[in-house]
């Protein structure tokens, strides 16, 4: 049976998701909502969407929908996901789930109160190569006891105070947009850290333009990561243990190949290429959860989304980064 999707927002992520929904035989992109009717119509023409709504309120009032993908800036996730949940729709909300942990708690409470499905769109967790990483690290234990993760992610974005990445009102900064990927990877592999050491360089607008942290775990594991809006350090990651290392090649969070080097020098690689942008895998997971009657994902559970934001809140507090909505 087909699952009817609505997309709330018409920006870049909305376009990528719409392209990938076409790759799922049981997914129907039924509706789109924008704050301007003209943008909804343009998006609808591009992706052959039958229902085009000139407001978000009209979108969530559409009775044809099963699930709404919230594809608006970080600062609007609480408001827009709440709209959809209270209208009786399942929600896949772009990452991070909300601007901070307090907002995430409110959103999770709303979903549970209305008995509706809610998931943070941590799309990289559902990419095929990540299944290989989990199998190699946790099941086959090819590295032995893994006690080290090193990851970086960076772009060279020209400084523009009006760009969403530098605008505090839109939840800008390297952490929430980029750093969330290595943070979530560390959580996925090791759980929440026991202690955190960090540093950040702030932009003139007050958001973090560059940040780095070391997560330490009581068993001796360390996860070190770096995120930047102004420097590209290679976009790679490494997992290491006494039996070898597993290296994620450039753009590791997008499903790039992973290369294994064993302690005896033997090498192997895992590549799981896919068509499209990679968002179809999380969408397929959401549809499977809905068919099974779930109200949250076992792969990206709500308590973990909340814990991620608690950690990122603590990092921002240490750096002195706050958003106007938190005043």
UniProtKB/TrEMBL annotation:
This is Dehydrogenase. One of its GO terms (molecular function) is oxidoreductase activity. The keyword Cytoplasm does not apply. Signal peptide: none annotated. Belongs to the Gfo/Idh/MocA family. Residues 139-247 form the GFO/IDH/MocA-like oxidoreductase domain. It comes from Salinibacter ruber. Coiled coil: none annotated. Residues 3-119 form the Gfo/Idh/MocA-like oxidoreductase N-terminal domain.
